[in-house]
Design a protein that fits this description.
With 210 residues, the protein is an alpha+beta fold. The radius of gyration is 25 Å and the shape is globular. It folds into two domains: 1-35, no CATH class; 42-185, Gcn5-related N-acetyltransferase (GNAT) (Aminopeptidase, 3-Layer(aba) Sandwich), CATH 3.40.630.30. The longest helix has 15 residues, at 134-148. A five-stranded mixed sheet has the order 1-2-3-4-5, with helices on both faces. The chain is built from seven helices and five strands, in the order αβααβββαβααα. The protein has helices at residues 7-20, 49-62, 73-80, 134-148, 163-172, 177-181, 190-198, and strands spanning 39-43, 88-94, 100-111, 115-125, 153-155. The structure holds coenzyme A (COA).
Length: 210
Amino acid sequence: MGHSADPLSCVFELISCIQVNKRSRLGVLIRKPIPMASYMIRKAKPEDCVDIVGFIKELAEYQCMLDQVDMTPAKLEADAFCTEPFVNLLVAVCSKSNQTVGYSSFSYTYGSWKGRTVYMDDLYVSPQHRGAGLGTSLMQAVAKSAVERGCNRMNWIVLSWNTRPKELYARMGADNLSEKEGWQSISLFQDNLELFADKLGANPKILFDL
Ligand SMILES: CC(C)(COP(=O)(O)OP(=O)(O)OC[C@H]1O[C@@H](n2cnc3c(N)ncnc32)[C@H](O)[C@@H]1OP(=O)(O)O)[C@@H](O)C(=O)NCCC(=O)NCCS
């Protein structure tokens, strides 16, 4: 059966080619439309900092440590979007609602044994969107960036009672070094950090040229 040559029939043919993934009479190869993805993971923009700080607080609340959070959107924006960022931020966005539903934060560090290392500080997906693969995908995105920057190691910490994520990390192939090698996490927080730093030079036998 011959084809009619009017422009409208060409349009209909183009549309039917989209459905069946074939070459149209106009010689254009048209692929089947990709089904709309439910979520998008992307680098954060400065305007995402308000949502991210909301999630930082939700995560801290889940960890029963909300009283320790001093972060504000302005502080996060200043640290993430400066010339040499202190932190990299990824967000997961729901395609249907255009709402931000999760995030991960990470930064680059260095280990004297293995060299370039990525440290993932936070991983959070809002409760209604869990179980859809976002947590895994956010971690894969961090891992991909790290591999592209030549890192050979990804570090993060998890609370001992947070068993479901611990199981997820084990399934991914991650080692729990507290259990395996007995490492414990040590921090010097602001007041003691400043006190300690102020003692530089207190030992007369040691000079500094920093
Ligand atoms: C951990 C977390 C980021 C996982 O996000 P997610 O989008 O549900 O992750 P995925 O869909 O990729 O994987 C879900 C897997 O994690 C496990 N999981 C861990 N905690 C879960 C939770 N609260 N709800 C659902 N699944 C959870 C499930 O067993 C699931 O594995 P499965 O699909 O093989 O059954 C999310 O549960 C979360 O934000 N939890 C609270 C904060 C937290 O613990 N963050 C990690 C701190 S180290």
